[in-house]
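so ive been stuck on this for like two days lol. basically i have the seq below and the ligand is zinc ion, smiles is in there too. i just want the complex predicted, nothing fancy, no docking runs or whatever. if the output looks off dont worry ill sanity check it later, just need somthing to start from for the group meeting slides
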Amino acid sequence: MTHEEAFSLMMDALDGALAPAGADRLEQHLAACTGCRAEWSALQLVDDLLAGAPTIPAPAGFAGRVSARLVAASWPRTLGALFTLSVGSVAALLTVAVPAAVVLIATWAALSQPAGFAQLAIGLQQLARMGGAVLGASRTTLRILLVETTGSPLFLSWAVALGLVLAAWAHVLGRPAPVRVRGR
Ligand SMILES: [Zn+2]
């Protein structure tokens, strides 16, 4: 191959229009020709500066690598969705678990009163009274939360977290169900 041919192949390579066969021939010439190797380095440098992007000296297998990179790029999104769902699930669990624990403790406290069948009614009464107290306390807490802490960073982050959880689950539940083909 002449130096002129090599130069022409370099131009094609910089344009991303070099066939694998041409790339092989250029590579062979560059391995043997110091002058063209220096010229190729200078051309790549200039092209990098002008385009601000890496050149493609050997397009062989380029499409495969791009596809692999696209697959890899979709992983952060998947991981982000999984993370949001995990956090949402934990938050939902806590939202359910904390009141459930309060009810369980209240029940246990009421039932651990002096035993006896007649005492059970009293225990239930106490439980009901306790439940009323818990409800009243909740109402007071809610009122304090709404009046005093609306706009506080804690309340705002809680509201944002709740919104994220709802959005994540709405996204998951709103997804169309996978189509099942009946076998047999
Ligand atoms: Zn040469």
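Residues 3-60 form one domain. The helical segments are 3-14, 20-32, 34-51, 62-111, 117-148, 153-174.
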